[in-house]
Amino acid sequence: MTPTPRPSLWEYANPVKFMRLSDWLLPLTAWLAAAAIAVGLVWGFFLTPDDFRQGSTVKIIFLHVPSALMAINAWAMMLVASLVWLIRRHHVSALAARAAGPVGAMMTLIALFTGAIWGQPMWGTWWAWDPRLTSFLILFLFYLGYIALWSAIEDPDTAADLTAVLCIVGSVFAVLSRYAAIFWNQGLHQGASLSVAPGTRMDWAYKAPLYVSMTGFGLLFLALVLAGTRTEIRARRMKALINRERMQG
Amino acid sequence: MIALLARDLRLAMRAGGGFGLGLAFFLVLAVLVPLGVGPEGGTLAAIAPGILWIGALLACLLSLDRIFALDFEDGSLDLLATAPIPLEGVVAVKALAHWLTTGLPLVLAAPVLGILLNLPGPAYGELVVSLLIGTPALSVIGAFGAALTVGLKRGGLLMSLLVLPLYVPTLVFGAEAVSRGAQGLPVATPLLLLAGITAGSTALLPFAAALALRINLR
Amino acid sequence: MELVASDLACARGGIALLEGVSLRLTPGQALILRGPNGCGKTTLLRTLAGLQPAMAGTISCPPETVAYSGHADGLKAVLSVRENLSFWAQIHDRAGVGVAMAAMNLTELADRQAQNLSAGQKRRLGLARLMVTGRWLWLLDEPTVSLDAASVALFGAIVRTHLAQGGAAIMATHIDLGLNEAAVLDLGGFRAAPRAPDGFDEAFV
Q1: Domain ranges in chain A?
Q2: Residue A237 is nearest to which of C194, C197, C204, comparing CB atoms?
Q3: Mean pLDDT score of chain A, rounded to an integer?
Q4: Angle of helix B123-148 relative to helix B188-217, nearest 10 degrees?
């Protein structure tokens, strides 16, 4: 009698298992994301009091903060997925990193745009070369390069390898750029909106809907990456079928 | 290793354009900027540090595709990969050759172009020192970008997109050192940070670049 | 020195080409690879040279002991014949540039730039490079392309000298070099069954 292998996370590196998992996980996360974002935004936009200094404009944080958070987390996820690909050669991991690229880039764009909309009434300008804004813009450039490298290389394994190397090197330089930007210009951006330090700067009336919205964006990111990975896997399957036909023909 | 360096330098001299083109581009930029911005001395003096650094950076970028692409096309890279010297060493030597033929001439020419751009007197020392410390990083980072895109038919534009964001820290610290010099402020901090980036890049990026080359060769 | 490759499988561009290739080569032996275009001769040679990883199987020879010669000769157009050759000699830390030039009938062309050579002369220079590597195993991919009959004979002679000195060679060629002692391996029989590397793409099919 053969012992049953211990179930492990790595099983989902098998595309069939991943597809079976995402068959039900994708709609679940998609609906949860939609619900959480709807609740978070409605609650945040309409059911919170106006800030005594910033008025109603402050409410854009319910879009701005979650998207900025996911913009950075998406890159972190790409980095982890790239390392998994380079070390363990799980194809699903490389494809998930590829799928996360455009999503992260979109999150960065949303953060930049909502920031501009917020900044206009607050600072009197759409754009300022503030360290945070600048580092987000640079992050966006890194995303562009990563996505462009993926689409420029035909062989999927070569593309996965090279983009993974770029992602690792890029991560180091993205962090360096962040500190370079701080060094370059001490900015006018307010400090982090959420803080674990005692003496909270934000009232629970704001925090609660913000957390809901952040959860929603996290789930949205997960759903989009799952959907993107499924698309990539299907594209690979198509290629495999064409190759098989060519070899048999 | 020395044979490879000698060969790359000889190629750059003979094929024309190794020394000349980057330098000419640097000069053209230093002429075009005042034509676009206006001849007013104060404005030029204020932007001169940034323009000189950006000019050096773009001049470096222009010649990056020569680092590996030519050797890839004529098969030399295959032979170098099977040669008794490690590929990491090949990358480092080729980046050094690139710096000697592109970076070093830029460093030497920069003070002359500083005069064209009305760079304030005290900043010339900082200009030369910061370029001397910073341009090796430009060559090594560029070699990494060139290694990533070496197998691609039209990789030049893509390489710019990949390499330029990686140049951000070098540019920030380099230009900052020059403008601080122009204002008579202490420049040790940006210069040390710049040196740190150069040292780190030179130590680590040849490994990443050699990995990328191996992936592209197989 | 001995090359033992067992149960090799090689892929090109993500598509498996060859599997189950086993070969064994001792000093003094030559092996000629045959097979239709696209059957994987180049891929096998690049795998043996360590330029790409094998999908499966083992190769006993480290890449540091083989000299690879591909479709491109790795010549620099603006360097002279002698400079091209002595560069590779220096890289491999060997002498013998003069001998190599004489063997491939390049001595008269020594100071001519590679860009002014004919296709056949370039090829001769590319093959002369093998002699200055000092490696015991030569991997040759279509070595006789654009060589005339006299040059093919010269090349046959240097391969025979190399074998006599305890070297070995594997070459993909369709031309008869007059190496009657060489074994022939037809790669047609090792065509891989349709499946992709490590079965990822196949997991669906």
Answers
A1: 59-186+223-248
A2: C204
A3: 85
A4: 20
